[in-house]
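Postdoc handover notes: sequence design on the structure in folder B. Input tokens:
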């Protein structure tokens, strides 16, 4: 029996990738460990199931409005009232990003944690077509869900997409997946009467002002979040190493497409990895946790509170309830756009003179080819095969680093999690956390100029953090009551976790 629908509301528009996106599938590049999804026509695409899953996860984590989505229970089950179409991607070339886990004991790539991931670049346009079907409920039902409730949830979803709050696909906390809804229209079809049905079949639906729709139906539903914007500049050459090399230079910085240009990039995974490693060091110190030299990589990074903040692997049974964690770190791009042709000239330069000319033509006058060598301890000469050069970026301006902390995912550890993150930012500002490649060889040092903190639905006792700036990243710019509250929560967590560790042993 067909279900009764009183109205349909359709949204058509474009989701623009604010960061690269990876939605996995089969049938793509067989040489890449994590390939992109490809449809039957050989196009990259975002399956409607992936879009609907991301939308459902966002809405349910915020409002618990499960009645909008499908229910597979035997009694009263129904299909989803939100329908989302597949989204084919046109005219976009995929990029390849390397992923690696760093062994905490040796500081090198962890065993079996090295992989390649295909991504759709920042600026990719994703066509969005989704429709809400509002069901009819008898007025004598025990629990009546009005049309108004459905429209409130739909308006919240549209507003979240419009603000760029929702992420798609994999590695969402490591710089990928953030999208923003642009250039969209809303049309409504009434289906409760015969004349309404005829109008719908004739294509005479109603075009609704998107601003008016959101104004009429949007409520105050939102996540509890802390957004941190870090304004910074490099003090030494800084880059992330690309997988490929040039002809005249061995090590090139990683670049990524931004519309029709290329830009240097610090992946969110690299920034998050540096912050996580430092957070582990802090927690190991305050809890007096020793590193087990026989532990594998996943056991090394399974640290209390750190896993809540940065996430835990799904296969890790001990931390299975944590999932992806609560801290989202965006990719950070250099503010020096380079044309693909100029970058290709740099890659194919055959000698130092040609390379210097290609760099100057690309506007990279301050970028240099630096030579490195390992010295043979016996002969005192260059070790065999250990002479190499790197293209080191100097005086490149970068976008701010953006962090988003979802406090709802921290549950009872909210204040302790905020404290740990702020301690990491304090040490970042103090120059204790270098970023990128070659950090143990003098590269990656940065200067934090300011940290701007904004929040939504924060605990009233932390009202100061709704809108506050920390000059040079100094925590002393926070008020004494806020610092006292965070210190108290941090110390209480340490005492409780120490007792738990003693009890476990």
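Designed sequence:
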């Amino acid at each position: 029996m067909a279900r009764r629908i009183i109205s349909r509301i359709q949204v058509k528009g474009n989701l623009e990738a604010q960061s690269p996106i990876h939605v996995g599938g089969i049938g793509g590049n067989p040489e890449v460990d994590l390939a992109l999804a490809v449809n039957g026509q050989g196009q990259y695409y975002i399956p409607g199931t992936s879009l609907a899953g991301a939308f459902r996860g966002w809405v349910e984590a915020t409002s618990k409005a499960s009645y909008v989505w499908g229910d597979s229970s035997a009694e009263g089950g129904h299909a989803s009232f939100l329908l989302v179409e597949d989204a084919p991607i046109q005219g976009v070339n995929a990029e390849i990003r390397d992923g690696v886990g760093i062994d905490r004991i040796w500081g090198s790539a962890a065993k079996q944690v090295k992989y390649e991931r295909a991504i759709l670049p920042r600026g990719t346009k994703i066509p969005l077509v989704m429709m809400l079907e509002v069901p009819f409920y008898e007025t004598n039902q025990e629990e009546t869900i009005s049309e108004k409730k459905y429209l409130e949830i739909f308006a919240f979803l549209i507003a979240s997409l419009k603000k760029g709050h929702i992420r798609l696909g994999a590695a969402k906390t490591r710089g990928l997946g953030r999208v923003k809804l642009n250039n969209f229209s809303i049309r409504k079809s009434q289906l409760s009467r015969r004349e309404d049905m005829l109008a719908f079949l004739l294509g005479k639906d109603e075009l609704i002002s998107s601003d008016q729709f959101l104004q009429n139906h949007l409520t105050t539903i939102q996540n509890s979040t802390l957004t941190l914007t870090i304004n910074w500049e490099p003090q030494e050459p800084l880059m992330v190493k690309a997988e490929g090399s040039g002809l005249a230079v061995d090590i090139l910085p990683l670049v990524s497409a931004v519309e029709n240009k290329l830009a240097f990039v610090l992946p969110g995974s690299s920034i998050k990895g540096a912050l996580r490693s430092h957070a582990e060091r802090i927690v190991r110190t305050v809890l007096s946790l020793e590193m087990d030299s026989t532990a594998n990589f996943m056991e090394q990074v399974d640290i209390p509170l750190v896993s809540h903040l940065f996430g835990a692997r799904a296969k890790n049974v001990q931390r299975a309830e944590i999932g992806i964690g609560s801290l989202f770190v965006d990719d950070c791009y250099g503010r020096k756009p380079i044309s693909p042709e100029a970058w290709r000239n740099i890659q194919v330069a055959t000698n130092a003179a040609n390379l210097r000319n290609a760099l100057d033509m690309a506007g990279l006058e301050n970028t240099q080819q630096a030579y490195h060598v390992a010295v043979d301890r016996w002969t005192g000469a260059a070790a065999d095969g250990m002479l190499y050069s790197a293209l080191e970026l100097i005086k490149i301006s970068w976008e701010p680093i953006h962090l988003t902390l979802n406090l709802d995912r921290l549950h009872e550890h909210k204040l302790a999690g905020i404290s740990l993150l702020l301690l990491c930012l304090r040490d970042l500002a103090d120059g204790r956390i270098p970023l990128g490649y070659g950090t143990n060889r003098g590269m990656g040092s940065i200067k934090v100029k300011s940290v701007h903190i904004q929040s939504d639905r924060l605990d009233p006792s932390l009202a100061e953090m709704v809108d506050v700036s920390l000059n040079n990243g100094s925590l002393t710019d926070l008020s004494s009551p806020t610092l006292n509250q965070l210190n108290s929560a941090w110390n209480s967590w340490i005492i409780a976790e120490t007792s738990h560790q003693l009890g476990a042993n």
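Context for whoever picks this up: The chain has two domains: 5-217, 225-245+254-333+401-504. Don't rerun without checking with the PI first.
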